[in-house]
Amino acid sequence: MNSETNLYEQLGESPGLRRIIETFYGNVVREPLLAPLFPEDIEPVIERQHQFLTQFFGGPPLYSEQHGHPMMRARHMRFPVTNERADAWLACMDAALAENGVEDELREFVVARLKGPAYHFVNTP
């Protein structure tokens, strides 16, 4: 992991992050706990996730420019998010990072950075 660059840069900026997100959603749609929460046309979800993670990892504020303040917990309230689903989401991201050749130290750091938001969205026992 390079402390002189942000996560967005370390993950390959837009092209690298896009590959990770596309791999991630390929995993999500095959995950029985998560797939029912997502629409059949996953492309708009991929685009919004790309915008959000670009901003979240230190790149340009694409999500805020397009959609306003992220308010991610509020945007996820309509979905039954459980601890098990948060775990599955994180596992899908961990796998996507590994599948895209992200080094272990960086992969572990990214997953740790995403744990806070993932569990913050839990709204169902």
Automatic annotation (TrEMBL):
InterPro entries: GlbO/GLB3-like, Globin-like_sf, Globin/Proto, Globin_bac-like_CS, Hemoglobin_trunc. Keywords: Heme, Iron, Metal-binding, Transport. Its cofactor is heme. GO terms for molecular function: heme binding; metal ion binding; oxygen binding; oxygen carrier activity. Gene3D superfamilies: Globins. Signal peptide: none annotated. It comes from the Bacteria. Belongs to the truncated hemoglobin family. Group II subfamily. This is Globin. The lineage of its organism: Bacteria, Bacillati, Bacillota, Bacilli, Bacillales.
